Amino acid sequence: MALQAQDSLNNSGSERSKKEVRLQNKQARMYKRLERKLSDSLDYKTAYFNYVLLEDLDFRNFENLGWWQFQYNSLLEKIEDSQPATPQDSLRISYAKKTVVSMMGVVRDVYEAEANRPPEIRDYPALVFLLMLRTIVNPKDYVAYLSIISYSSKMEDYGTALFYLEAALKNGYTDLETLNALPDTGLLRIMPEFQAVLEVYLKKGRYGIREEETESSDLE
Fold first, then answer.
1. Given pLDDT bands bounded at 50, 70 and 90, which one contains residue 17?
2. Does 131 lie in the same domain as 73?
3. What is the dihedral of CA 148, 150, 154, 160, to 10 degrees?
4. CA 185 – CA 137 distance, rounded (Å)
5. Per-residue pLDDT tens for 125-175?
6. Structural domain range at position 127
């Protein structure tokens, strides 16, 4: 009787083990399928980003910057807000990060190709468009902000220059000396609007002097 009970327990344990193995194998297959699907999706998205970017560049489609911002924000939400409960969730987050890197790579490669043209045939509106994209896929790309300010001033588009000056300062840029030495920004820097933006974000004017310091000096 005892032997029969023991055999029954062994058989029951063996069945549970088999079920666990089958479940693990099933989960492993599901993981592999998801990984292949996400990998194919990444390849497709990289090619699609490149296609859309070149098309936007051809038509100077500044209005489509909002689409790029939406794509970036959607990926960022997946990366920052997701709490991975399963290996599949972690895999999805990993591929969201890879997609952001892919997007940044596409923008970088197209920008470098455009920026390396000889100055006499360089397309400055195209460069500005690509630099704007660089600030979308990397909000801390201060070189991009500064280049937009410089190129926009060169084209006398001071509204854009001021907008990206403020955007750079909002994102933590503080190097007043570099701002005051940017090429082609002489007229921009004497504008009251330029002074006002520096005063708001750096509490300093273009000469690095605080307004209250000037007032104090006048009183003396």
1. confident
2. yes
3. 40
4. 25
5. 999 999 999 999 999 999 999 999 999 999 999 999 999 999 999 999 999
6. 29-138
